[in-house]
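Much of what follows relies on a compact textual record of a protein's fold. A record is reproduced here so that you can trace the correspondence yourselves:

. . .
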Amino acid sequence: MLSFTGDVERKDMDGSFSFLNNNEYHFELEGRVQGRIARLNAQMARIYFVSGLEEVSAPSEIQVKDMTLKEFAPMIPPNNNVILMWTSDYEIYYKGHVLVKLKMQRQYLCQAFVSAVGGSEAVHKSPFPLPLEHPHSLFSLPL
């Protein structure tokens, strides 16, 4: 079961994680342990684990693989958090099986400016209008 919390009440997850909002995404493990993915800033997030209301160390059976770099992500002490960068895809393994896939979907607004012979300028926009404040990034979480 995946769900999220943030500025809105907790409910079933909508299938994506964004670095651009403060929602916190949850996934259940065995027992009372729950994994969470939380935004740190527009470029980084972290995976951490809780039991009840207390943050706990990552279970020893958890591994997070950076699929872009083809290596396991380091576990950061003291609780073995994992830092996620918006530039990579990840897979979260539990007991050797894929639990969650985090697939990066980078999208940009593309504009081409063409000067016509008469001096006028035409603007051609892509069919995917997204703001250019920073690269838009979403992790999709298919299971």
User: Anything to note?
Assistant: The chain has no helices and 15 strands. The two ends are 10 Å apart (CA to CA). Residues 1-14, 116-140 have pLDDT under 50 and may be disordered. The longest strand covers residues 97-107.
